[in-house]
Amino acid sequence: MSTSDLALARREFPRHRITGYLNQLVARAHGQIYQSEPLQRNQLVAFFRTTFPQLYRDILPYTITATLLFIFPAVIAFLVVWNKPDTIYLFEGDQIGPLVRQVEEGELWVDIEPQVRSAMSAVIMTNNIQVSFLAFAGGILAGLMTAWVMIFNGIHLGAIFGLLQFHSLSGGLAEFVVGHGFIELSVIMLAGGAGLYLGDGLLRPGLLPRWQAIVERGKVSVQLILGCIPLLIIAGIIEGFISPSGLPWPVKLAVGLITGVVLHTYWLRSGRG
Fold this sequence. Notes:
Layout lengths: L1 H11 L4 H18 L1 H23 L1 H24 L4 H5 L4 H8 L12 H21 L6 H23 L3 H8 L3 H23 L6 H33 L6 H21 L4
Helix pairs in contact: 1-2, 3-11, 3-12, 4-8, 4-10, 7-8, 7-10, 7-11, 8-10, 10-11, 10-12
């Protein structure tokens, strides 16, 4: 409509002020309509090139704390179950029974048939995203739920490895997780750090009103979680296709080490200056 009016104004009132106004209006509209996509693409590139790694470094102390909340319970659960396998029921409940019986028969549950790997990949990605989001969202409860998610998942992983170690099967599970575990665990630790960062804003708002501190820290935490989604997709693809494959374990280890080093180099060095 504006372009039609502009064409009419140029023909009938070429020197009138309204012609100049319509010309500017159409020019601004053209810029908004035809340049929005490149602008959004540039913003996305800038986010992953600069903003995301900078935010990672900003909350690094919280991420380290979340990592410790995961590692210590994992080590304790591993040692307890390794020395006394029946204690796994204390950590996992009675529902772990079928898995325990399978392990006692010398079998692992990670040998996924090729025809179901693609479906498993989707399930794995969804589960990883859910755990990460739960660790982040728990920050709204002063970080208590975040701490619980980290501790619970650490206990779960440590207890399973302890059971397998007692039955001399831990190497099989380690071979399965080594390809994707570096990315997956790193992202979950970051999600936990984002949740603790959010919870700390609730407990210690500083000079800001408590609600404003939550809003400001929430913006940072949400950006971090959104940045983690592509990483979880990559981890899920590796876990669904490479981890259960027949590739030699050194190849899987190389995949895990390379992806882990690249990820942490990106987080720690990208966007500086």
